[in-house]
Amino acid sequence: MFPEITRPSPNFTATPAHERLGVCFHHSALDFDATVEHILNADSLVSYHWLIAADGTRCQLVADEQIAWHAGASEWLGRTRCNDFLLGVAFAGNTYHAPLTTAQVASALEWLAPRWAQHGWTTAHMTDHRQITPRRKDDLAPAEWTRLLAAIVKKFEAG
Ligand SMILES: [Zn+2]
């Protein structure tokens, strides 16, 4: 198991029950420490539910039950305001400069495992920032998204 730590961000919207229809994956562009600092700054108006460090450590920034501010103007499966219904999970770093680490991919799968059945997710419920904000955001790098999705398929949907 990868370690989990908590660094509560002020940047969230309280809601009775986040829909958790799926997951939007991001890269944060910054390294882990700089990302946490940014997310804990109320002036940034940005947050993710979880941030995954290069060594696989997972940091919870916003509770799954609340709305994190990760997607911005966005659309997925015909709905806008994706923050209302997608969890935001970011990988520290920039996938255009360096691929996801093996630990980051393994940690994401470990994080998904208890939620997969709980929320009735399939790979169709997995997306990334690039796909829900065409021409506005570019994370993840397409090759890294393909790699991550293949790992998810292998773990949860193969055979
Ligand atoms: Zn993003």
Describe this structure in words.
The chain is α/β, with parallel strands linked by helices and 159 residues long. It has a single domain, classed as 3-Layer(aba) Sandwich (Lysozyme-like). It contains four helices and ten strands. It has helices spanning 32-40, 102-119, 129-132, 142-156, and strands at 4-6, 12-13, 22-27, 50-52, 58-60, 67-68, 75-76, 79-80, 86-91, 126-128. The protein has a six-stranded mixed sheet with strand order 1-5-4-9-3-10, with helices on both faces. A hairpin with a 2-residue loop joins strand 7 and strand 8 (79-80). Helix 2 crosses helix 4. 36% of the residues are buried. The mean pLDDT is 97. Bound molecules: zinc ion. The site of zinc ion has 4 residues, from loops.
Keywords:
globular; Lysozyme-like; six-stranded mixed sheet; alpha/beta; 159 residues; binds zinc ion; 10 strands
Strand order of the largest sheet: 1-5-4-9-3-10
CA distance, first residue to last residue: 24 Å
At the fourth CATH level, what is the homologous superfamily? Peptidoglycan recognition protein-like
Any idea what the shape is? globular
If you consult CATH, what is the topology? Lysozyme-like
- Encode the helix/strand succession as letters: EEEHEEEEEEHEHH
Mean pLDDT: 97
- Estimated radius of gyration: 14 Å
Biggest pleated-sheet summary: 6 strands, mixed
Helix content: 25-40%
Number of helices: 4
Class of secondary structure makeup: alpha/beta
* Tally of discrete structural domains: 1
State the total count of DSSP E strands.
Answer: 10
Task: Give the DSSP E fraction (strand runs of 2 or more residues).
Answer: 15-25%
CATH class: Alpha Beta
| Low-confidence runs of at least 5 consecutive residues | none
